[in-house]
TrEMBL record:
CDD domains named among the record's database cross-references: DEADc (cd00268), SF2_C_DEAD (cd18787)
Enzyme class: hydrolase
Species this protein is from: Cohnella abietis
Gene: cshA
Chain intervals with Gly residues compositional bias: 450-486
Biased composition (Basic and acidic residues): 512-547
Lineage per the UniProt record: Bacteria, Bacillati, Bacillota, Bacilli, Bacillales
Protein name according to UniProt: ATP-dependent RNA helicase CshA
Region (Disordered): 434-547
Length: 547
């Protein structure tokens, strides 16, 4: 267990960390911070939600002089939402030191970004596509960059950003520090590491489990056409605080979020066909709790950190095990517990077993609640909310007069039941039909994850991280806790669309950047890319490699 003071950090940085509510370093922070502070190149791997952002953010901030008035650090992330989120965390870490950082991503007015660049930020956090745009326009120069971080490095390769990243890194002086971070490190990352890292240290928080230990993982066997009703039942029986539901394609996400809204759930959809304004609005609503269900493509699978996400639901199974690990990793973060449910059709059971094998985690079967169990769950929740209002002695005076009038005319039970029906937003009679998706087909492939070794531990309750976890994965690790006001959540999105076409080809080819349409599939299920900006020149088959 390490405190941040042990790293010999300057007071401004320590103050920022303390204001963020971090009391102890997480295991990856404890291991990575000293190495990165020493200026070494590094590949950092640790489970989702264990503080990798600060693991690179703290040393990065510490190594920048406040007098600097050029871009000296560059962080790349695969999606716009993640770039925004990382930049917010960097901003907080550098606040007392007075450092300036700027997020650069597609979909946002470029002239606005150019104006912000005039403030001379020392740190740029961007998606590769838009970064290249700025480089070509000569509005960003990388000649003075001394630290480069690739967050979710493996994902950026999967999305076909290899060439973009190569072009960008060629412009950064060789005398630099390069850091790669992700919860998953498939073998193709070696290629990037060999090319761009110098004698890197592989810092890995050992765990038998690739997925975060505090997530209870379930699957539900279900027919494609039953998925929607099954989802509603699950949501009713065990109402989440906040939930993210992953769909395979943009069309799927759009249809599903609309359907859920029609049934009365407070929900919205996030995918690459939305404008950046719409994406920002959806994220804001999810963060502030105006909606409690976010339906998203894989654009939201990586890195997003939203406090209060208790459930992740794979309405459609993801194509690859890494994607599964990252998707479910949107819950069970920072020592909190979470639950994931995956819908599996009969033809997808093989694929589920493949995911289990790669992630080394048994996913337990869950039986769908019956209609009446689901209804009961929903009613119980409503009853609790009503009772809470009564117990809190909230002022209901303005409603009393109408209540008395109604009670004079109608039966009290009948009245309360009608009010509860309205409150539960029960619209079961609304007919919903979703366009069916083809089942995911499993393709075996060589996979190298975070395996073997002893476990790290993030457990415990509340804001304290420590102890061991369900699933028995962990040990060691110590207790990192978050006191104070906690931190912001973020969400991001990256959408991997569904795929109706066979997966072949090589994703890590050609350039083409359009993070707006990450890997969603529109008709046909072509996955959407997560970065932003321009049109892709890849053929659809190039989008899918793996397995
Ligand atoms: N030392 C700490 N103590 C308490 N909370 C922390 C600490 N470090 C990070 N956190 C919080 O833990 C959460 C997860 O952090 P972060 O998003 O960096 O995880 P990650 O490892 O990058 O996950 P992912 O693999 O999903 O990207 C955040 O809410 C962050 O504020
Ligand atoms: Mg992260």
């Amino acid at each position: 267990m390490s405190t941040f003071a042990e790293f010999g950090l300057e007071p401004d940085v320590l103050q920022a960390i303390s204001e963020m509510g971090f009391e102890e370093a997480t295991p990856i922070q404890a291991k990575a911070i000293p190495v990165a502070l020493a200026g070494k190149d590094m590949i950092g791997q640790a489970q989702t939600g264990t503080g990798k952002t600060a693991a690179f953010g703290v040393p990065l901030i510490s190594r920048i002089a406040t007098t600097e008035d050029r871009i000296v650090a560059l962080i790349m992330a695969p999606t716009r939402e993640l770039a925004i989120q990382v930049s917010e965390e960097i901003e907080k870490l550098g606040r007392f030191k007075g450092l300036r950082s700027l997020a650069i991503y597609g979909g946002q007015d470029i002239s606005r970004q150019i104006r912000s660049l005039k403030r001379k930020p020392q740190i740029i956090i961007g998606t590769p596509g838009r970064l290249l745009d700025h480089i070509n326009r000569k509005t960003i120069r990388l000649d003075d960059v001394r630290t480069v971080v690739l967050d979710e490095a493996d994902e950026m390769l999967d999305m076909g950003f290899m060439e973009d990243i190569q072009s960008i890194l060629k412009l950064v002086p060789e005398e630099r520090q390069t850091l790669l971070f992700s919860a998953t490190m498939p073998t193709n990352i070696q290629k990037l590491a060999q090319q761009f890292l110098r004698d890197p240290e592989h810092i890995k928080v050992d765990s038998k489990l690739l997925s975060a230990p505090l997530i209870q993982q379930f699957y539900v066997e279900i027919q494609e056409r039953m998925k929607f009703d099954g989802l509603c039942r699950l949501l009713d029986m065990e109402p989440p605080e906040l939930a993210i539901i992953f769909g395979r394609t943009k069309r799927r996400v759009a249809e599903l979020s609309e359907a859920l809204m029609k049934r009365g759930y407070a929900c919205d959809g996030l995918h690459g066909d939305l404008s950046q304004n719409q994406r920002d609005t959806v994220m804001r609503k999810f963060r502030d709790g105006s909606i409690d269900v976010l339906v998203a493509t894989d654009v939201a699978a990586r890195g997003l950190d939203v406090t209060g996400v208790t459930h992740v639901i794979n309405f459609d199974l993801p194509q690859d095990p890494e994607s599964y690990v990252h998707r479910i990793g949107r819950t069970g973060r920072a020592g909190k517990e979470g639950t994931s449910w995956s819908f599996v059709t009969a033809r997808e059971t093989d694929h589920l077993h493949f995911i289990e094998k790669v992630t080394r985690h048994r996913i337990s079967k869950k039986i769908l609640p019956t209609l009446s169990e689901a209804m009961e769950g929903k009613q119980k929740l409503m009853a609790e909310r009503i009772m809470d209002t009564v117990r809190a002695e909230e002022d209901v005076t303005p409603f009393k007069w109408v209540a008395m009038q109604l009670l004079e005319q109608y039966d009290s039970v009948q009245l309360l039941a009608a009010a509860m029906k309205l409150l539960t937003g029960d619209k079961k009679d609304v007919n919903i039909e979703l366009t069916p998706e083809d089942p995911i087909r499993s393709k075996k492939r060589k996979f190298e994850g975070n395996r073997g070794g002893s476990g790290s531990s993030y457990g415990g309750s509340g804001r304290r991280y420590g102890g061991s976890s369900s699933g028995g994965s962990s040990s060691g690790g110590g207790a990192w806790r978050q006191g104070g006001q906690g931190r912001s959540d973020s969400r991001g999105s990256s959408s991997y669309g569904g795929q109706r076409k066979p997966y072949q080809g090589n994703r890590s080819s050609t350039t083409g950047r359009d993070d707006s349409s990450y890997r969603d599939a529109n008709r046909g299920g072509r996955p959407e890319r997560k970065d932003d900006s321009r049109g892709s020149s890849r053929s659809p088959s190039e989008d899918f490699v793996k397995i």
